[in-house]
Structure formats: structure tokens, C-alpha cells
């Protein structure tokens, strides 16, 4: 799989950009602030319908414009797909597949698979649990696009249930009873979608584990062993590292039981205390949590190992994804830089950005572009 052509209009800093790409390495070189990352972000957005830099879509639209457009021609197994998304602030986005409108933007998922490694990825191992949950869920929807709907339904139910809990809690604190007549219904919806999402995450972590361990050993052979464990509010974390995933029905029962147990606390606090939105991915190095113990280099190696694990996993169960390396070579020492370049050179397509061309190892031969003052020039 590779991106043959990228077009953006009013996306980030770009009024318009038209870029013909090739299989193999495509390197964008330019000073900071020239828009290199914006182009890579556009490719990643078409793949996951989310940005690796911001949580909402509004910043993706160029200042002063009403909407942004991202379009890519993708070649996979000899066939070309044209994916297009129109991003409009405050309104539902619109999408086209092969220039024909589709009912929902998430109908594009699966048409382009990417794995991006960027400076922001250090937050996966050092940041809040929400960063790791997002990391897992973005991979989930690329592997199994229907899970985008499950995740959206779960988020919707979570908001509705939280609103009910807050209203009821406030009424009780004011001396009333609070209407909780529909809470059981929302519990049922939460359990239905939450058990599916939880099962998918558990399976994903079990599948990623051997790839992540191998990638870390290759990148930092003297730093020790990387270990992953999914930490759940309803599943014993000591047992989920065996690769045996409980059935969805078992997870549903466990969620129901835990919701019943914590209901008084939930009403008092006005929040949902149980479910996948409270879970975390535990990343350890030599039996110590990376967060708080690892050096800067170990943190970078772990984050990169997680991304490379995603790359290997996605390639093993479908079309090989496009590998995107956004301004990362300058952050790596010579050994890790060469290791990453060796892996990237074998990819069907790798998109690279760099402020300094000499930071990109020589083995990543291919097409090079200069990005200067809103213009893209092929060398």
C-alpha cells in the first residue's frame, strides 16, 4: 500500500498543495514552520480520522477558511482508491470514496493504513492514561474499522450517563430524590459497547506484545526487556498478559457487577467510574514503569518500539501500512537512527520530514522534496 498522490486545500498552513508521491522513501526537507508536518498530518488524518497533534478538528482548518479538504489516491494490491474528507468546523464532516459521497466519514477507514512516529509519541509512555487509550483505539479502528462505531457509541453513552448521574446527584444533595429511572437502561448500553471495546483492546495488547518486545530489543539491545500489560477496572491485570482473552459475555457480566458495586459513589461524584475509559496500558522496562524511571533515550526507544509493533502487526493481518516518520531522526542517537532507517528502508512506502536533510540516514534513498515558503519542489 502506498499514497500515490496527496492534495490538500485550506488544511493547516496550506492554501493548496498538490504532491505526487512514489513507493519507497519520500523525504520532505525544510526549515521548521514550512508545513512539512501538516502534509504528513493530512495523510494520517485520512487513515484514522484524527490528528496526532490536536484533539479536535477546528485547528486543522486554515485560519480564515470555512473548511479544509484532504484527498489522497492510494494504491493497494494494484488497485487505486481515492479517499477524500471535507472538514468543517462546527458541522459534520463529509467524505467521498472514489469521488462518490459516502454516508459517514468512518466509511473511509481501512482504505488507507498508516503508522506515524512523531515527537508527540513520547506522551504515549510518559503522558496521561488517555494518551495510551487513544493510541490503542487508533490502532483498533485501522485493524477493524467497525470498532470506530463501537467506540463512538461508547463515548455517546458515557456522556449521556454522566449527565444523568450529575443531575441526580445534584438533586439528592439539594434534598430531593433525583430521577434515576433510566440509569439501568444506560448501564445496559454502556456494558454492551464497553465489553466489545474492552475485548478488542485486550486482544490488541496481546497481539502487540511480542512485536513490541522484539522491536525494543532491536533498537536498544543493552537496555533490558520491554513489557506491556493492559490495566482494566474489571479484569485482573495480573492475568491478562497470558494472551487468554475473556469472552465478551464474561466481560459484560464483570462490567455489570462492578457498575452495581460503585453506583453510590458514581451518584455522589457524578461520573462513571467503571469501563474502558478508566483503563490504561502499563509499559514496563525491566519490571519498572517507564513513566518516572526511564531515561529520555529509553522513553524514545519504547515509544518507537510501540509504533514499529503497530507497523508489523498491521502488515501481518492486511496490507502493509504507510510508515510516516515526522521529524524524528534529530531526536535519536546515531545507533537508534540507523536501526530505524534500516527498518524504514524495507517499507513499501515511508514518508519522512526533516528540518535538516543530513539528519536522514543515507540508506533512505528515494524521492526528496524541498518545502520552502509554501512551495514544494522535487529535487
Jot down its keywords.
alpha/beta, 6-stranded antiparallel β-sheet, 2 domains, 15 strands, 379 residues, Glutathione S-transferase Yfyf (Class Pi), Chain A, domain 2, 6-stranded mixed β-sheet
Q: Concise description?
A:
It contains nine helices and 15 strands. The model has no long low-confidence stretch (mean pLDDT 89). It is α/β, with parallel strands linked by helices.
Descriptive report:
- This protein is an alpha/beta fold and 379 residues long.
- The model has no long low-confidence stretch (mean pLDDT 89).
- Strands 2-1-4-5-6-7 form a six-stranded antiparallel β-sheet, covered by helices on one side.
- It folds into two domains: 1-113 and 319-379, 3-Layer(aba) Sandwich (Rossmann fold); 128-313, RecF/RecN/SMC, N-terminal domain (Glutathione S-transferase Yfyf (Class Pi), Chain A, domain 2), CATH 1.20.1050.
- It contains nine helices and 15 strands.
- The longest helix is centred in the middle third of the chain and has 37 residues, at 183-219.
Amino acid at each position: 500500500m502506498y499514497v500515490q498522490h496527496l492534495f490538500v486545500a485550506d488544511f493547516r498552513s496550506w492554501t493548496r498543495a498538490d504532491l505526487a508521491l512514489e513507493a519507497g522513501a519520500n523525504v520532505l526537507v525544510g526549515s521548521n514552520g514550512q508545513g512539512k508536518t501538516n502534509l504528513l498530518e493530512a495523510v494520517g488524518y485520512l487513515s484514522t480520522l484524527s490528528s496526532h497533534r490536536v484533539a479536535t478538528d477546528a485547528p486543522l482548518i486554515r485560519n480564515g477558511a470555512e473548511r479544509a479538504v484532504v484527498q489522497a489516491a492510494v494504491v493497494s494490491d494494484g488497485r487505486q482508491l481515492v479517499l477524500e474528507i471535507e472538514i468543517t468546523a462546527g458541522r459534520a464532516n463529509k467524505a467521498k470514496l472514489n469521488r462518490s459521497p459516502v454516508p459517514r466519514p468512518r466509511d473511509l477507514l481501512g482504505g488507507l493504513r498508516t503508522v506515524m512516529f512523531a515527537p508527540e509519541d513520547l506522551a504515549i509512555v510518559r503522558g496521561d492514561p488517555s494518551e495510551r487509550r487513544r493510541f490503542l483505539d487508533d490502532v483498533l479502528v485501522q485493524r477493524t474499522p467497525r470498532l470506530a462505531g463501537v467506540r463512538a457509541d461508547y463515548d455517546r453513552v458515557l456522556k449521556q450517563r454522566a449527565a444523568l448521574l450529575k443531575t441526580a446527584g445534584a438533586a439528592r444533595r439539594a434534598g430531593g430524590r433525583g430521577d434515576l429511572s433510566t440509569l439501568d437502561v444506560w448501564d445496559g448500553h454502556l456494558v454492551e459497547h464497553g465489553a466489545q471495546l474492552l475485548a478488542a483492546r485486550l486482544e490488541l495488547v496481546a497481539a502487540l506484545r511480542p512485536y513490541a518486545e522484539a522491536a525494543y530489543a532491536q533498537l536498544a539491545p543493552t537496555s533490558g526487556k520491554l513489557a506491556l500489560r493492559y490495566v482494566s477496572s474489571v479484569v485482573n491485570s495480573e492475568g491478562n498478559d497470558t494472551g487468554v482473552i475473556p469472552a465478551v459475555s464474561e466481560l459484560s457480566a464483570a462490567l455489570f457487577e462492578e457498575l452495581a458495586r460503585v453506583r453510590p459513589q458514581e451518584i455522589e461524584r457524578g461520573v462513571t467510574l467503571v469501563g474502558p475509559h478508566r483503563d490504561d496500558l502499563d509499559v514496563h522496562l525491566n519490571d519498572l514503569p517507564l513513566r518516572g524511571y526511564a531515561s529520555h533515550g529509553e522513553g524514545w526507544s519504547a515509544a518507537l518500539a510501540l509504533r514499529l509493533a503497530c507497523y508489523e502487526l498491521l502488515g501481518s493481518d492486511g496490507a502493509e501500512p504507510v510508515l510516516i516518520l515526522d521529524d524524528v531522526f534529530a531526536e535519536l542517537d546515531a545507533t537508534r537512527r540507523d536501526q530505524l532507517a534500516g527498518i524504514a528502508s524495507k517499507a513499501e512506502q515511508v514518508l519522512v520530514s526533516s528540518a535538516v536533510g543530513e539528519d536522514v540516514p543515507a540508506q533512505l534513498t528515494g524521492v526528496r522534496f524541498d518545502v520552502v515558503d509554501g512551495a514544494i519542489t522535487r529535487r
